[in-house]
Specification:
With 277 residues, this protein is α/β, with parallel strands linked by helices. The protein has a single domain, classed as TIM Barrel. The protein is 49% helix and 13% strand. The relative contact order is 0.17.
Amino acid sequence: MTRIADTFRSLDARGEGAYIPYVCAGDPSPEFTIRLVKTLFDSGADIIELGLPFSDPIADGPTIQAAMGRSLSAGLKVKDVFAIMSSIRASDPNRPIVLMTYFNPVMRMGVDEFCRRLATAGGDGILVVDVPPEESSELEDATKANSLDIIRLVAPSTQEERIDEILSKASGYVYAVSVSGVTGARDKLGSAGLELVSRVASRGVLPVALGFGISRPEHVRQAISAGASGVVEGSGLISMYGKDPGHEDSSLSAISEHTREMKAATVGAALKMSSGH
């Protein structure tokens, strides 16, 4: 059993959902990323999605685009992302880390070598946002060879047969996109995303994590009440430290408090759902 599967099984047994923060590696520095992840884990985060910065992040909104731009401008390389992951893993041997990336950096290094280095650094899974299942046979082989889970995306526009196909080629969990658009914090979750969670979760194949727009405890409760096993938050967290360049450390206490609130919402919602109310 992978660390990801073990985490979701343990959370389910305790009546909890997973809180999964997205962190852009190297924004604004590798040292801050490591401190940020430690803060998130210490405050209750269950899984970290570590984003590999990319110059053309078409699936991401302005907040994550800006974070990636800051990281790349500071000179971050792919090898630095693996070094960040190794440092995180050395201090936390048990909680899962998923690498979220576009395919170009994977292809440039070579799929086999990339996955080998990801596993060596302590990664548990990979989410490549711009490679559909029918074009990812090489990636599937490399992830299996290195005992990595391969996380897949589904969107509100995904048809039923397509959902089944995606699930058949996924492991760890499936990432449900709440809107047909780009990442970014939103005031409320649309019904399409919640309906998608119900459609996918009802199949009982993999845990479902809802992302894109998650930023408030009520979003967490809505997602888990709809059947999600977890939620992913990215832009909301980045906004908490990205507004004051040069003073990111001062935001860590606020991020810690926010993380505790988001995690607490997974507990209440999961218990309420399991009790049938």
